[in-house]
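Quick one:
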Amino acid sequence: MIKFFRKIRYDLMENNKTGKYFKYAIGEIILVVIGILIALSINNWNETRKESSEELKLLSEIQSNLKQSKKEIKNVLDKNEAYVSKYLTLLNHTEQKLPYSPVLDTAFARIPSWASPYLTYTAYESLKSRGSKLVRNDSLRMQIINMYENEMIYIMDDWDQSEWRDSESVVRPYYAKHFADNLDEVTAKPNNYNALLEDAEFNNVLRIVISNRKWGNRTCRNGITNIEILIEAIENELIQRGFY
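Output:
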């Protein structure tokens, strides 16, 4: 470039061709600028394509994780609904003061138990490390953030921690005092069934367990519905963007 301008200066001084070389110099500069702009545009285009590819791949992974989480929550819901049914059977027996039956032993064994969800966060953690702005669709981005930062936290922390709290402070201490587990199968017998029928504390414990489990079941059902909505929203985005 320096040699080029020296040449222009020399020609101007020697031949006094100012107009010609000025136009020539301007043209050369414009060509150089255009070349730089084109190179930058190509580079930006490549970066945009790369980010778009990463975004769609990550959205597909999040969708896959959500499907796994939905399956996990559904399994938890099925188990806990079955537990609630057993607890209601026990409550009916004690409130109606019905006679003992060995078929109750399976229900007794489930008093301190509940199914906890273990949800998949892998793809969302990757998104957070890359920056949530990678998802260009604002509405979809907010749906994803709300799902992982609110909905799943509510299921895994709020409800599940409530279960743990009541289990450790109320349910397990009472259970350990009044029931004997069968070590060879998942059953348990009350130490004194007739005394249990007269014990108002037992009914209170059952109601605490039933209340928590029903709360968890409602939370799981809502979670499944909202996960299905988000899975569909991601699916539509992937189709519209030509991922498939």
